[in-house]
Amino acid sequence: MYKSSTFHVLLACTVLLFACGQGERTIWSKEKANEWYASKPWMRGSDFIPSTAINQLEMWQAETFDSATIDRELGYAEGIGFNTMRVYLHHLPWVADATGFKGRMSKYLEIAKKHGISTIFVFFDDCWNDNPASGPQPAPKPGIHNSGWVRDPGSAIHTSPKLADTLETYVKDVMTTFANDDRIVLWDLYNEPGNSNYGNQSMELLQKVFHWGRQANPSQPLSAGVWLPSLADLNKFQLENSDVITYHNYNDEHAHQEAIDTLRKFGRPLICTEYMARTRNSRFDNILPLLKKEKIAAINWGLVAGKTNTKYAWNDPKPNGDEPAIWFHDIFWPDGKPYDSTEVNLIKSLTK
């Protein structure tokens, strides 16, 4: 366990020296970004957390890291032709034990590679519950979507300015450790900046994490996905600083096509890192064929229904725990049975 301040000072110095020695790289040219994308197969998969974890902390803390479930559930993904997972990290398990945390990342990557799956890692996140805390995580609230998901770092970044020093060391340590790991396809630096009514308060951390990422200078591209058109300042920064463009869209095929047409104007590869909410008419049958036709990487939210409760819709809670008439997200039950076998057969027809 590495908890001493001396360790973190030494680690920070090491990472900063590495970054200074490498120099801060600029954004990839459009040509480089498109060459990189052309070298990849069509990426398709899910945002992934094992069904036994309620949030990122339960996934990554040593006491609850569940490699057996990860192995089994990535096998479900492999079985339907998925080859890419988007996976959220969290800085608190790294603070508790940086070496152990990176070891668990390596273990995850080893399991994913066995199943022919590459990984998009996500650093920060403005969604759901504030004030994350290490240790045992709460039980799911019946019928409540993502009842235990936690932000990273949450509002503490606005009240504890020194937290940024810890986050800088964390990002650079993780990114330099895996800077040339071909099992990682992309670093997604910040999920939905400005969510939870933060708005432009998230700009400072967004700018910093791009700066830190460029100093770490990994071989993989850097991005942060646009998700809400009204966040004009954040969107502008994200689109101007991402090596490849990532985005979220939970609308039907017509609105999704409009978003694609708008983002194409930037001349960079497109990766959809969140889609598929059945009751919003974002489904596999109307969106996945569109993304394949447009040669856009397709990452839907949710693989296996579990403790995150994402089979329940954002705005339609079932506090009594009743089964929703239509699952919002997710593809499989924990035992591997498909929610909808017709849907799974469609996915297979498009991926194989």
Automatic annotation (TrEMBL):
Keyword terms of this UniProt record: Glycosidase, Hydrolase, Signal
Example GO biological process: polysaccharide catabolic process
Transmembrane segments: none
Secretion signal span: 1-19
Residue span(s) of domain Glycoside hydrolase family: 81-302
Stored Pfam families: Cellulase
InterPro entries to which the protein is assigned, alphabetical: GH (IPR017853), Glyco_hydro_5 (IPR001547)
Family: Belongs to the glycosyl hydrolase 5 (cellulase A) family.
Record protein name field: Cellulase (Glycosyl hydrolase family 5)
